[in-house]
Amino acid sequence: PARLKSTLALVTGGGSGIGRAVCQRLAQEGASVAVVDLSIDSANDTLRRLARDAPGQDHVALAADVSRSESVRALMEQIQSRFLAPPRVAVNSAGITRDEFLLRLSEEAFDSVLNVNLKGTFLITQAVAQSIVTSGQDGGSIINMGSIVGKVGNLGQGNYAASKAGVEGLTKTAAKELAKFGICCNTILPGFIATPMTEKVPQKVLDKFAGMIPLGRLGRPEDVADVCAFLATEDSKYITGASIEVTGGLFL
Ligand code: NAD
What we know:
- By secondary structure, this protein is an alpha/beta fold.
- The chain is built from 8 helices and 7 strands; from the N terminus they run βαβαβαβαβααβααβ.
- The chain has a single domain, classed as 3-Layer(aba) Sandwich (Rossmann fold), CATH 3.40.50.
- The protein has a 7-stranded parallel beta sheet with strand order 3-2-1-4-5-6-7, with helices on both faces.
- Strand 4, helix 4 and strand 5 (140-145) form a beta-alpha-beta unit.
């Protein structure tokens, strides 16, 4: 079903993993997708897949660093001049890890993870909401990637857990403030999803996690993308400020 026909969707981190699967899933629903990534090569790679699988829709690949306000401003200008309309769906999937145990965690590793995961989500959420409000036509869906780690913590991920707990608080506040503009804001809390981000995790640890997951397997990017499609469409119109775990039941 083309539930997102003539909808423009902006997806950060669209060049890899979950973000790429989200781009493909939203395009499948009929959306035009602005694939945003720090790496223009990765974004273009996703764009080629969209052109192959969802031709006839106007997709674009754009480079931006979500952690820098000048870069986010330039990104929004490019989108406005190309589509002459604001994105109605925004998915914040850009994210990084810099794992270190707390006793050794450097200030630099703390700041860089908070800057991309939390500040980047803030800058894009604010910019997209501003563009919707300025257009004078209410309505939209902002979907932010938190993590189950933001709720339960994880060894070596103090910076990451803090950033993801922050994303949840930010998103709930955005839900309250932006409801009057018809903009719904929700957080997805993925569990353990097999992507380039989790590729570095040793097989022993992967097996351990898989054994702890009631549904009996690690997640796939498509598992998250399906929930994202739901949150992007009218099917979820009465849901805002929610945090939806997509974990296969991990840490219930
Ligand atoms: P990934 O590493 O495959 O993809 C992340 C993408 O973000 C990359 O293409 C990268 O270039 C881009 N990116 C990094 N910094 C950026 C910046 N400053 N500006 C713009 N783009 C930037 O990771 P993934 O596994 O697909 O994760 C996507 C999101 O889901 C992240 O926010 C991650 O924290 C979250 N998440 C992932 C898992 C998991 O198990 N994979 C679990 C919970 C949450």
